[in-house]
Amino acid sequence: MEKENQLVKNLASLNCQVLADFIASLYGEDDFLDSRIERLVLSSDSDALAKLLKKEIASLKRSKSYIDYYESSGFAHEINEISMGIENDVLPVLPDQAFKLVDGLLNTAGHSLERCDDSDGYIGDVYRKICLLWLKAASLSSAPRSGWVQTVRKLADNNDYGVLDLLLPNADILLSEDELSQLAAYYEEGLRTSLEKKEKDEFGTNHWSVNLHGIAEALKDPEMYQRCTLLVSPSPNYLQIADMVGFFMRCEEYVLAIKWLENEWKNTGWDKPNAQRLSLLEECYLALNQHEKRRETLILLLDISPTYHNLQKTLPLVSAGEAQQLRVNFIASVLKQSDIYEKLSPLLQLEEYALAESVALAEFETLQACSYTTLLSLLKISPDDLSLVRIILLRCLLGDILHRAKTQAYHHAADYLKELDQLDKRVTSYKALPNHADYMLKVKEKHGRKYSFWSKYNT
Fold first, then answer.
1. Smaller CB count within 10 Å for the chain: N or C?
2. Distances from the Cα of 301 to the Cαs of 306, 338, 359, in angstroms?
3. What angle do CA 79, 81, 86 make, to 5 degrees?
4. CA pair distance 49, 27, nearest whole angstrom
5. How far apart are CA 23 and CA 12, in angstroms?
6. Residues 207, 164: Cα–Cα separation, whole Å
């Protein structure tokens, strides 16, 4: 941000004609950049800008070209730029035109998603933001405020791609409390009718349930939200309870939340629902200023989920003697963790470097199987002078890139190997690890033909 601010300052000091000539020279280089320049030029002429945005939306709807995974974030950015143009430059001046534009833009969602690989969800996320803009634009338009219930209901019934997930939970932007209550009654009746059918219709039931939950959110009605959940699941599982509790807490109904958190949740597979339960319970006690109950809950939580974050929340609430014993117990619990990240990360954060080094050496093969992001997270919290741990993590990161032949990441791999060269000058003992010279021989033997990597390393 500091670099960006300095750039803005430097550009502001330039002669206006120089800037205008430079921007004009860029025009025609890139379609997306051309659109941004055209919008910038028309930003003070809302009517002309609205016409330009209408053309861009029509082009978006006509286009049949496939957007692959690597292009999806850029495509999402293009759609977002259209949305921002409507919100920032047209809506404040021409609200009716702005609504027509955003309604047209929202209608391109299905077509856009059908012709792209949106594995990361960038495009879906942009359209969900556009859904919120649709509500805002509708509320500012000159259309009668009382005529939107059927329109909202029709939209909610056609949420095939999930881009309208935020419509009903935020419908209070557009609809009155009475109108929301009408929708709630409609969805609850539909839910009860679906549940009473002899032949179960899970899809239909889910549709009515999701929509009723959405209206309960818009009304900020915990009782309605709870009733909807219990209609579908009279004995809700821990995921459903956590969802309810989260909503109760957002409504600041902490006493109601605590009622659902007092009994233990059973562990299922790799999940730790009891840790989630205690974490939520601790937040409720904090909000209600029930400090002793919060302290007791945190100590229980620390035993189930020994994370550095949980320890840091607990230590200020106990005496010095208790704190020391908690630390000892915490380290013992951490060393029993089966997940290497949950074991190594707290030790590094606690500056228990001797233990961290022992764990890293003992579980080197486990670390080699870790994901790249996990290894990178551990490297970021490993101090520069913790040579052996950094060597282990760097070797794992380097191996991950070279083994998968990720050419786009070879510049990172080269940096890792260069740091290993530097660490070799400082480390006093490699202990059970091969020394740097032997390690380099193995890397060259296995990956010697990855010429683009070695060219980056030798640069």
1. N
2. 8, 18, 24
3. 100
4. 18
5. 14
6. 13
